[in-house]
Amino acid sequence: MISKLNSEQQSAVTATEGYVRVIAGAGTGKTRTLTHRYAFLVNELGISPSNILCVTFTNKAATEMRNRVRRMVDMGNVNDLICTYHSFCIKVLRRDIVRLGYPESFVVMDESDAHHLLKECYEQLGIKRKDISYRSMLAYMALQKSELYPQYISMFLHSTDEALRQDFVALGDDSIEWRCFVRYLELQRGGFMLDFDDLIYFATYLLEHFEDVLNYWNGQLDYIMVDETQDNSQRQWQLVAMLQQLHRNLFVVGDPDQCIYEWRGAKPKSLVEFDQNFAPCTTIVLDRNYRSTPPILQAANSIIAHNRSRIEKNLYTERNAVADVVHHHAKNEKAEGEFIAQTIKQLAADGHSLSDMAVLYRSSFNSRFIEQALVEHALPYVVYGEVRFYERREVKDTIAYLRMVDSGDNLSFKRVINLPSRKLGRAFMERLEIVAEREQCSLYQALKGNLDDPKLNKRGAVEFVELIEGLRAQAKGLSISALTERLLELCGLMTLYRDDANEERVDNIKDLISSMRQYEQINVNEAEVSLTKYLQDIALYSNIDRNEGEGCVKIMTIHQAKGLEFDTVFVAGMNEGIFPNDRTIRERKREGLEEERRLAYVAYTRAKERLFLTESEGYSMQVRMDKLPSRFIYEAGEGVRHEGRMSREMERRIKAVIEYSNRELESLSQPTAPVKVGQVVHHRYFGQGIVEAVDESKSMLAVSFDNQPPRHFSFHAIGPILHTDF
Ligand code: ATP
Ligand code: MG
To answer: Considering the entire predicted model, what is its pTM?
Structure first.
């Protein structure tokens, strides 16, 4: 079995005892080494699978790993220790959570459960969503939990001692956020509900506080192996450290260049410093890439070399080139989708299997134009990790409202009548059904014609009819996109989405609206771009057959693609602002940009033989500007073949934008202000001025000229525009 591995990989497999770390780039066989090591432990050393913990990051990766191991090992029916952190924590909790006063049947909360509890807290404390959105409250509470671990468990959730609970409450301030947090914890406790963060906190807590629990797991886990450790959080490292105490057989693999969850607390440094915390440690470096051909590897090496905070390594491959890496520039999004679909068709015609092809993108709203192109070309596809664009809740809600304006079918009616809540309950709906049955008409017509019926005459119902009728009256004079924008504001859906913990909802809605604008442009010569026609046209995209799995093109976000590989990879929507994502850069500056770049590195290294980087012109509603090609295309180096005509002007602009942004990031990462308050400065246009204020956290300074109110500049103006040296 191990003869199929190279000698470094073999040494990683056979070094079964003690602390072993594999640090290596993408596609060098880390996961393969890990699965072979599992098989070696079972088949050669006779260790039982129930004593080997093997942790990875996503459910998808865990399933994949389990399947690979099964092919080599007779697992009997024990295999549930090849899993994610979350599912391992659930196992720990199921066994011993009773010690914390929780029943074995505790509830694992999802997003909607969290909203439910918050709603209750808001009602009880009189908080308005417009004052504090659910999203920011959830973020606040997550932060509190991480900072107040373990107190929030020991003093509050686990404690029945009222004085201790009061001490916990006194840890916070008198803010409404804190009171809401405390109330939320009470409700969680009342329903024995744990959110995703709680799972790891509670499991860690049990191991820390109950020696026999720790001893049990220490005794069980003879060997521990962890894949993708570059994305481990502090808490996950802590958990692993506790679990390995007895046997001290810990094998970790990772690639610091592929850390893409720093924003969620990943600590890639811990992998780099592993040898200090777990000594003595054997480190194995793999540098032969088995996955990709030379042009792809060259592009990947070239892009990641632009990151400053990294340990240098250079991968090589002995595979033969199949094709160049191609950058395809299209005139608009439709043409970009068209290029992808046509290329896939051509490859399929040449005998390549659709399931070996993947389209990756930065943010989930990007999937819309790709899905449309694939549907138009009758190419079967599956979206990994999430639902298809036109089946996403916010998209369906919006379409249902449009349907109400257009025709008013019963399905749409039922979807939106209480969205947002109009307090129309079961009795109301039952009455309405009876009336509609009697009058042989739709629910909406029944409502509209019988608003004087005492059971139907509710405030919410009257408002709903007014809303729909109002929109119907306006619909004639408005384009579909403008109607949709108005509708979303008037009915209150937009507020609902803006509040949502899931920021992607708003992006998806914006993308839906921009797709409507394109639809209007394309159909501009038609006698009439009617809402009816639009709704019929897009029904095509939501009613497609669901042929999952085999024989399908796979489309997914880059985050979902971690650890996977495909013969052909398209990275679509490669535009400045979208990828790299401008929100990330704004929030986390250079570190944000470097994380985006690692994401590009992950994307490029998924490809085995063919890699296409695609992007297009046009206005982006998400970024609020005309799109430009991403810097990540140019950073992939000279080997990339550029296709598609781009104007000189555009080439010039992209260069200028990248230069500007780099300079800005440079000055933003400067820790101290280069000027002091009171200092005299000279501006290229405004002349001599005095520095009035310096804000280092925002990298801003205020300068007044000629006793005018101060103007504000970012630090990067110093040097090229503002001079201090005279
Ligand atoms: P990533 O960083 O993307 O997670 P990885 O380092 O885990 O990558 P693997 O997925 O294990 O890499 O391996 C990449 C590809 O190379 C796989 O198709 C694997 O089968 C192949 N491979 C790895 N090692 C060898 C080897 N010694 N001989 C032949 N093929 C190999
Ligand atoms: Mg891997």
So the answer is: 0.82
